[in-house]
Amino acid sequence: MEKILILGISGLVGKALLRELENEYDVYGTYHRRKLEKLSDKIYKLDLNDPSCIKHILNNVKPKIIISCLRGDFEKQLDTHKVVAEYSKKNDSKMYFCSTANVFDKDPSKAYYEGNPTNSESDYGKYKVSCEEELKRILADDVVIFRLPMILGTDSPRFNSWMDRLNKGLELEVYSNLYLTSITDVMLAKQIHYIIKNDLRGIFHLATDDIMNQIDFMSKLTSKLGYKNVKLRRIKAGEGKYYLAVVSNRADLPEELKLSNEDVISYLASE
Length: 271
Known about the structure:
Belongs to the dTDP-4-dehydrorhamnose reductase family. The chain folds into two domains: 3-150 and 183-205, Rossmann fold, CATH 3.40.50; 152-182 and 208-270, UDP-galactose 4-epimerase, domain 1, CATH 3.90.25. The protein contains eight helices and 14 strands. It is α/β, with parallel strands linked by helices. The chain has a seven-stranded parallel sheet with strand order 3-2-1-4-5-6-11, sandwiched between helices. Strands 12-9-14 form a three-stranded mixed sheet. Strand 4, helix 3 and strand 5 (94-100) form a beta-alpha-beta unit.
């Protein structure tokens, strides 16, 4: 089996990828605080403050596939990704990088497709843009970039926070003018698996096919969860319609790997 190294395997996306890939690949991972006992001797603590740490891990594992869903200090992450990219180039490994919809957050007046130029004003978005540019500079077409929207799972921090407030009868804060795409951790892992298996290349916007207003999303979700008379405190994100949405015009993924916001809501409510 080919060796896969998942950077940030103890996070929401990393754990979903482990579940999806472990029967077909020899999976290794890195963590910062939470070690996954399931991986035993195949998981390494990654110290972003020590540049030699990632080199040691790469040389020990010798992965043919590297997926990055790292979190942490932006500058140190960028330095780490440069090292990983140089390793990937030298050793003919495939690299996959999880980016974000925030690479477009300077102009939130519309949704964005894969071919649109990046344009960000947030620190987070600017960091992801820098990573994308550095990886493409080093690896050219040999890096695959996933731009991701709001990621939800039944054990995701965002969903757990909503459930905690609902169970306590507290209000939920929603943006009345915010329009979103989303995705579940499980479907994201399936899509990434398909992209790896079929050696697809380029930039992918992995998100729902439709865009939904946040109030509609939260109203439908809380209703499907069985909550009545939920308190929604409406606020605004800037002026006019505010989009934090990536959508795709690629035709690479099969129909069974596509989903809508209604699908996301049904998944969260069914678990």
